[in-house]
Amino acid sequence: MTNTMARRAFLKTAAAGALAGTGLSIAAPLAHAAHLEDAGTDLSRTPRLLVGCCAYSYRDALTHGKMTLEEFILKAVELKVDAVDMTVYYLKSTDPGYLENLRYLAYRSAVAFSGAACGSSLVQADETRRADVLGQIKGWIDVTDRLGASHLRVFAGKLPDGVTLRQATDWVVDGMKAACDYAEPKGIMLGLEDHSGVSQGADVCLEIMHRVNSPYAGINLDITHFIPSATQDQYAQIAACIPYATVSHIRDHFDDGTPIDMDRVWKMYADAGHKGYMSLEYEGEPGGGSAPETGIPRGVAQIRELCRKYSSV
């Protein structure tokens, strides 16, 4: 068997294994894996799961001026995380000098940027507005590039009144295709978050990935947001999307407050041979308990323990 044929056989087996029991098609992960094969990437089944933290975890302090992004980077050193997700809401500016200083501080602190995260939503009923959002995303791709990061999170968005899910999905596909065309020469991945609204089901997320069909399109996989359906619970949907996962956002409970079996989730990532950042996105405890000062270190510690248990690092 030639090397190319062997890689194709591996990709098919890997994708099928990741989706086993989910009821979802392997077509989309296979299309994505084919891009990796064509690029000559030697895919390994050994998981590499690293500890991250989203700037959004400190949103109150960052919003009210009690913390700067520079201080957030230094906090990451204190927390001993591998990387930080730079939520762009908290940038003081997009001036090159400011962005380069953040990049330099992160390098000197041995903190990687797992990516940047913008709030731009691709689902807009007005065509002019959709074009404007695409322009915003291109601008954030430039900011991501200046930071020296390789990933940008984007949103699909809410379903507007009078708009069908099919229309909204078409708009996301068109927007992601154009944004990926812009991001690809810069080597930047775009991660569509499974967030409240259009992309809150794995079936829609996978359809979008399959139709965009770009090695620079992925899913910013938030393990907490999927809505269970009659045939697929949240765990099945997480597993189905892992082959496309870029950065993963982690809390220990689903949106309805139900605790997540974190061991089960990490094992799914490990079984899929995933390599990526498992980034805490702290939003408080169900019922309002625990302050960030105690909740964030505890969340990071839990992620670190699981990464050590299920990963090669």
For the structure shown, list the relevant keywords.
TIM Barrel; 313 residues; eight-stranded parallel barrel; globular; disordered N terminus; alpha/beta
Description:
With 313 residues, the protein is α/β, with parallel strands linked by helices. The protein has one domain: Divalent-metal-dependent TIM barrel enzymes (TIM Barrel). It is 47% helix and 16% strand. The protein contains 11 helices and 8 strands. The chain has helices at 3-19, 27-38, 59-63, 69-79, 96-108, 127-147, 165-183, 202-212, 234-241, 262-271, 292-310; strands at residues 48-54, 83-87, 112-121, 151-155, 189-193, 217-222, 245-250, 275-280. The chain has an 8-stranded parallel beta barrel, surrounded by 6 helices. Strand 3, helix 6 (127-147) and strand 4 (151-155) form a beta-alpha-beta unit. Residues 1-23, 25-31 and 33-41 have low confidence and may be disordered.
Estimated radius of gyration: 19 Å
Class inferred from helices and paired strands: alpha/beta
Strand order of the largest sheet: 1-2-3-4-5-6-7-8
- How many DSSP helices? 11
Tertiary shape: globular
The parts where pLDDT drops under 50 for at least 5 residues are 1-23, 25-31, 33-41
